Amino acid sequence: MVEAWYMDDSAEDQRKPHRCEPARPVSLDKLQQLGVFYWKLDADKYEDDPELEKIRKEKNYCWMDIITICKDKLPNYEEKIKMFYEEHLHLDDEIRYILDGSGYFDVRDKEDKWIRIFMEKGDMITLPAGIYHRFTLDETNYVKAMRLFVGEPVWTAYNRPADHFEIRGQYLQFLTQRA
């Protein structure tokens, strides 16, 4: 099951867990209130998994690729790691399925506080369009992930501030309706 918590304010290495003291865990229900959805799947059979196919069909995730993030596999590794960790939003949902390794997605809550979501093999997550977020590896420095999209992939990230986008306003409206 996914593990999430409120982050501390430390400027220490981004790959560390950064748990608040005392701990402030975040439930799956709280993540869903933010529009973040999670599934636990069998990553060893991702090529032939009926559960994954069912989710892809229901959500219309028709495009996918696989990315490996580690020094040996990702061109411009250091630059990409910095880019992934910049706070940003997308105009489309971000869907990631961890096939191997681990890392963290950080998302902002309604009060603009960071929540860290630990992702490991078998975890699949959807971050809604318009949510401010970022990604980093953990101390293992390795993750292999499937990226899924509705339609053709759009890779554009809009760094904060990006409140002028219509999708950001729609996301904020979604949050107020959940209150």
UniProtKB/TrEMBL annotation:
Keywords from the named record: Amino-acid biosynthesis, Cell membrane, Cytoplasm, Dioxygenase, Iron, Membrane, Metal-binding, Methionine biosynthesis, Nickel, Nucleus, Oxidoreductase
Annotated cofactor note: Binds either 1 Fe or Ni cation per monomer. Iron-binding promotes an acireductone dioxygenase reaction producing 2-keto-4-methylthiobutyrate, while nickel-binding promotes an acireductone dioxygenase reaction producing 3-(methylsulfanyl)propanoate.
Membrane topology label: Peripheral membrane protein
Classification via Pfam families: ARD
Required cofactor(s): Fe(2+); Ni(2+)
Gene Ontology process terms (BP): L-methionine salvage from methylthioadenosine
Region Disordered, annotated ranges: 1-20
Pathway(s) of this molecule: Amino-acid biosynthesis; L-methionine biosynthesis via salvage pathway; L-methionine from S-methyl-5-thio-alpha-D-ribose 1-phosphate: step 5/6
Chain positions recorded as Ni(2+) binding sites: H88, H90, E94, H133
GO molecular function: acireductone dioxygenase (Ni2+-requiring) activity; acireductone dioxygenase [iron(II)-requiring] activity; iron ion binding; nickel cation binding
Reaction(s) this enzyme catalyzes, per UniProt: 1,2-dihydroxy-5-(methylsulfanyl)pent-1-en-3-one + O2 = 4-methylsulfanyl-2-oxobutanoate + formate + 2 H(+); 1,2-dihydroxy-5-(methylsulfanyl)pent-1-en-3-one + O2 = 3-(methylsulfanyl)propanoate + CO + formate + 2 H(+)
E.C. number: 1.13.11.53, 1.13.11.54
UniProt GO cellular component terms: cytoplasm; nucleus; plasma membrane
InterPro entries documented for this protein: ARD, ARD_euk, RmlC-like_jellyroll, RmlC_Cupin_sf
Lineage: superkingdom: Eukaryota
The keyword Cell wall biogenesis/degradation belongs to this UniProt entry's keyword annotation: no
Localization (cell): Cell membrane; Cytoplasm; Nucleus
Binding site for Fe(2+): H88, H90, E94, H133
Similarity annotation: Belongs to the acireductone dioxygenase (ARD) family.
Subunit structure: Monomer. Interacts with MMP14.
Chain's role: Catalyzes 2 different reactions between oxygen and the acireductone 1,2-dihydroxy-3-keto-5-methylthiopentene (DHK-MTPene) depending upon the metal bound in the active site. Fe-containing acireductone dioxygenase (Fe-ARD) produces formate and 2-keto-4-methylthiobutyrate (KMTB), the alpha-ketoacid precursor of methionine in the methionine recycle pathway. Ni-containing acireductone dioxygenase (Ni-ARD) produces methylthiopropionate, carbon monoxide and formate, and does not lie on the methionine recycle pathway. Also down-regulates cell migration mediated by MMP14.
Full protein name: Acireductone dioxygenase
